[in-house]
Design a protein that fits this description.
single chain; 106 residues; alpha/beta; Arc Repressor Mutant, subunit A; three-stranded mixed β-sheet; 3 helices; elongated
Length: 106
Amino acid sequence: MARPVKCRRVCCGADSRCFHPIGKDPQKLPRIEMTLDEMEAVKLLDYDGKYQEEAAKSMGVSRQTIGNIVESARYKIAGAILNGSLLSIKGGNIVKKKAKNGKKVA
């Protein structure tokens, strides 16, 4: 029996985002779904330049888990770019993290 998935703390992103190649009809493109926790992992590691240990702590997961999350996210991003697919970012097992000023981040 598999272990239940822990909620991951995220602060970035709206509830839903889509990216697709310019000039293509999004309705006709193959769709790749990425979760908000995958986007948060990419943001923390690749955009913010944090180490896996620090990013894992921020999201409330283990270092191994953050490695697995970002590996999956990078594969999906590369697939969307290389294959001209629509990349949809939404959902996931997450809980919104509060910003430093105490307000929930949208």
